[in-house]
Structure to design on (378 residues):
């Protein structure tokens, strides 16, 4: 089956008990066991639930993976993967990471003896130098948040494999519709399902996909032991959102390309970051490994904080809010929102300057979005 069909059918056969076409919300904490000698497939909803199982099966299918795991948030999914490490292990992480991932690495995992090197994943010769004898994992985002840098996933996969390190890709920004890291050689994929997969800004969730049975078994054990699983209604809402992922992503991207091209010509915009533009430094890599360019556009406004503040407060359709990936358009100020956890020095080192704004382009009418940006910039 092709993507659009998988999104609607994978793991979502009619309910065997009632023949309901849509996977039911199995809103139960526990399940009856008929015998002490023979337990059923499901025992307790922390360990497993039919609604969650359908979601895990569907996401795995869309990423061309064997195993899927659903979590209570993207951060919980990140922790689920990082628990594969032990004190003394070393991670090579991309220089540009979501602030929440950076916070986990710096404030939680360093304290328990995990060593971390932040490497330039866009310069392969430099990237190779970051490996050590105890390197057990490589962690990147592609594209990154919020600078939209793109790494050559296939090359990094090859290098990671040569060092016997698990290669993890956060695929949140593109979703499996536009990019499939497992097909490019990655071992594990992480998603914040809060974003494009659910797509309607009404749940918080995360997911992990892999075809590595050993890693899956360990992560499955931790998922059950720690219990950071999503509520059943959230699983059902995510499944519902997943059904329209292909349609939404096409519209998201069409609006984003239109706005990015226009913003490049605007006198109040110093620079536009969007991998779909030929001017983007990693445009060719993006074309090679992606089937689309996503719906996040970052811009540097001509001016500083005061100009950015006026811009954000004048917007009428774009909503000033955390997160991204919903059907509605959002504007984020990374300095005070997604990357506030970083020091000013670290933000500036990455290129997150006071005049940077991140736009999550929704699926409203593109002319309305353009007019809104135009009046706010004006």
């Amino acid at each position: 089956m092709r993507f659009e069909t998988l999104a609607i059918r994978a793991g979502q056969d009619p309910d065997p008990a009632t023949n309901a076409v849509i996977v039911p919300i199995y809103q139960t904490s526990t399940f009856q066991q008929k015998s002490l000698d023979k337990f059923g497939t499901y025992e307790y909803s922390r360990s497993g639930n039919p609604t969650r199982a359908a979601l895990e099966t569907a996401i795995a299918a869309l990423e061309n993976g064997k195993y899927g795991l659903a979590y209570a948030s993207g951060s919980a999914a990140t922790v689920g993967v990082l628990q594969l490490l032990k004190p003394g292990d070393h991670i090579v992480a991309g220089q540009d990471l979501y602030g929440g991932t950076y916070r986990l690495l710096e404030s939680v995992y360093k304290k328990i003896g995990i060593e971390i090197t932040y490497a330039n994943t866009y310069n392969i010769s430099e990237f190779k130098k970051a490996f050590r004898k105890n390197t057990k994992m490589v962690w990147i985002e592609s594209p990154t948040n919020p600078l939209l840098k793109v790494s050559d996933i296939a090359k990094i996969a090859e290098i990671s494999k040569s060092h016997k390190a698990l290669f993890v890709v956060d695929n949140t920004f593109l979703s499996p519709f536009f990019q499939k890291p497992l097909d490019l050689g990655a071992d594990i994929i992480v998603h914040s399902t809060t974003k494009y997969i659910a797509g309607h800004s009404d749940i918080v969730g995360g997911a992990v996909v892999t075809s590595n049975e050993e890693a899956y078994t360990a992560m499955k054990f931790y998922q059950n032991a720690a219990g950071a699983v999503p509520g059943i209604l959230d699983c059902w809402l995510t499944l519902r959102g997943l059904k329209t992922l292909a349609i939404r992503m096409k519209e998201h991207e069409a609006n984003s390309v239109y706005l990015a091209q226009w913003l490049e010509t605007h006198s109040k915009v110093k620079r536009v970051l969007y991998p779909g533009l030929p001017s983007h430094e990693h445009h060719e890599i993006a074309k090679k490994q992606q089937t689309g360019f996503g719906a996040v556009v970052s811009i540097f406004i001509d001016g500083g904080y005061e100009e950015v503040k006026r811009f954000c407060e004048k917007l009428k359709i774009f909503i000033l809010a955390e997160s991204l990936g919903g059907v509605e358009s959002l504007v984020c100020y990374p300095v005070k929102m997604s990357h506030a956890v970083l020091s000013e020095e670290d933000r500036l080192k990455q290129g997150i300057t006071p005049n940077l704004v991140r736009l999550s382009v929704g699926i409203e009418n593109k002319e309305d979005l353009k007019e809104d940006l135009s009046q706010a910039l004006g």
Q: What stands out?
A: The mean pLDDT is 96. The two ends are 48 Å apart (CA to CA).
